[in-house]
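cron nightly-structures :: item 1 of 1
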Amino acid sequence: MKSNFREVQSEAALSDAAVPSADTRLDGVGIALGITGAILFSMKAVLVKMAYGVVPDLPAVTLMVLRMGLSFPVYVAILLIARCAGEGRIGWREMGAAMLAGMLAYYVCTFLDFQGLKHITAQLERLLLFTYPAFVVIFGALFFGGRITKGGLASVVLAYSGLAVVFVGGDITQSDNLWLGVGLVLLCAALFALFQLIAKGFVDRIGARVFTCLAMIGAATALMVHFLIASGGPAGMVEALRLPRELWAIAVVLALFCTLVPSFFINMAIGRIGAQLVAILGMVGPLATIVAAILVLGEPFGLWDAVGTLITLSGIALYTRLGQKRPNKAKPRQT
C-alpha cells in the first residue's frame, strides 16, 4: 500500500504536488473509489461507538487488538511480497526506526483516539481529527524548516473558527467529559501530524508500501505487549477476548471495511485521479460520519453544528486548494 487517507489529506494540503490533468479528473471509477474509500474510513468512529454500546466498559486496547489482529496478516503478506520484489532493502537499524515511528502513529495515536471516543460524539471526533493538517504546518515550521504562508495561516484560523462555533452553540459537544475527550483526540491529531513529518524521510528511502507495513508491525508489537500486561498474562488475554458475537462482528467490519478495503480503494484512486483530487473527495468523510452518527447512533446535530462544520471544512478545503496551486518543484515534497 502506498499511503493512507490521512497521508493523502496532508500531502494535498501542504505539499508541492502537481495537479491532475483535466482528463484524469473525469475518471468516474477513480472518483467513485475515492469517495467510497473516504466514506468507509469515516465509519470507523461510528463502529467504535457501537462497540462501546455493546460492551460499555470495553478497554480501548482490547478493541485495538481485535482490529489489528484481523488486519495484521494482510500487512505482513504485503511486506513479504514487496521484499521478494526487491523493494525497501534497509538495515536493521532503519527497520527498527520505522517500526518505532509506526508505534507512534498506529499504537499511541489510535489508543488516544479510541479513548477519546468514550467521551465525545463520533461527529466531533471526526471534525477534530480532520483539522490535523494544521499541526503538520505548525510543526513543520517549528522543527522541520518549513514556513507558514499567509494562506496557510488563514486556513488554520478558518478551520478552528468553525470548531469554536460548534463548541459555543452546537449540540454535538454534549458530554460529561467533553474536554477530556477533546484533549485526547487533539493530542492524537497532533502526534499523527508529527508522524507525517517523520515519515517523509522513510517513504523517500524505502517506499510507502514497505514503510507502512513496517510501521503496522511495530504498532502491533507494542499493542500486544500492552495487551499482555493489561490482561495479566496469556490466560488473561484469552479471557479478555471472550466477547459477545455482536462485538466480534463489529470488529470484523472495522478491520476489513474501515481499514483494509478503503486503504486499497484510496491507493487505486490516487493512481487514477491523483492525490489532490482524492483529498478533495475526502471532504465527504465528515459528512458521512454526521449522517451515520445521526441515523445509527442517534447523536444530535443542530444548526450551529452545521454552521461550524461547514466553516471547518471550508478551512481544510482552502488548505487543499492552496496545495494544488503550488508549482511542482524539483525538491522533495514536504508532507
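cron nightly-structures :: done
The CA atoms of residues 20 and 274 lie 6 Å apart.
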